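pasting for the record
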Amino acid sequence: MKRILVCFIFTLSFVFCSAQNPRIITLQEQEPETNPVILSRISEWQDLKFGFFAHWGIYACEQLVESWSVCNEEWIDRKGANYEDYKRWYFDLNKKFNPQNFDAGKWADAARECGMKYFVFTTKHHDGFCLFDSKETDYSVAGKDCPYSKNENNDIVRQVVDAFRTRGFWTGLYFSKADWHNENYWSPLWATADRNVNYDINKYPLKWQRFCEFTYNQIDEITHNYGDIDILWLDGGWVRPQWSISTDEVRSWLGAYKMVQDINMPLLAEIARRGNEDMIIVDRSVGGKYENYRTPEQSVPDEPLDYPWETCMTMGDSWSYVKNDNYKSTNTLIHILIDVVCKGGNFLLNVGPDENGNLPPVAVQRMKEIGEWMNVNGEAIYNTRPVSPYKSGNICFTAGKKGENFALILISDSVQLQNEYTFSFSKELKAGKKRILGCKQKATLKKSVGGYTLTFTEKDLKAIKEKHAIVVAL
């Protein structure tokens, strides 16, 4: 019945969204969200601060960069392979996907031990392979060509959602709006010149209609088959309306045909939020009402931003699993987390599971060590907001919701804890002895010409054992 309803809504709306009869675009969808229910939910999400991201799919079978090697763009290296032969080989990787060691509970336990509070999982990347049992395609973990389909619990998304939800995590599902395996996006009738739809939507509007309907039905599946979903994290930013194409970078994404691929986000959001009106939607890079928070990738802004945001970043160099990847040190990861949080953002840290469903041991070790630090110092991370001057040298500042202020002093091999720190601060602070999280020692805060001076005695410095960063409750 639900599928029939989705198709009915689609049919009614299509007269407004086909290329020949452009849908009516309102100013409302071009402006940020104003619904107090969703804004309240975003504020709750901002309290979580630290999340787990997992890129997983058929690309793990061959340790490939997630999906992109099948895309025909100049920057992609296939080591001299013929493109059409490579594409056929790649799309057949579903016949190899059979993760024998997959245990979603182990992932969730590692993330919980790390101190993470929410997760985002790739239900379907650009290559179109679904990690859920979709009624729209056999190109999935439940499809007969995939050996994992013989597993009694072959819906991987269900296993992941259940495991993380029972451990108290917010549930987030990644979904690519593009689908390179779908014949109504990359039609076999024409060459695939780049990442975009490979035909003229104006000439073949019914083909685009079929793709939109396919997408709506899959969105309906992932947002209604697994209980209430907290975050719908949409990728494939080249699938977007005309009004959002405003920069040279975005225009370059449209590739050879410069084709505007308006998938009708108001309708998609309506379907996703049916019965779950406070779901956060992240239509990445598009802006407007359906990008409830922004997601700078592999970077941390230099300054606090005046809108909700999340740095999404890999623990190694790759989003997907690569043997012997170059993993960031625990010290670096904790410093990034602190840098993000002091500027008002959330940190979504990605780990790519291998072809058998294992999290790489080095990643698990990093997560354990981050968790040890968070167990002591999480008070200065969770439920905080930025406070000026945000960051001064190797000191970061956060403010708790109950009026507490924290100084997070970064420690590394090259920057050790010093006897004295002078800083300005936007609020009036009370001088005196100040608590150091996780130890009996106290720092001394005094007013000074530069604002405030925080001092540690030599005895205190020798007694403080915390690595990576110490936190002083100002």
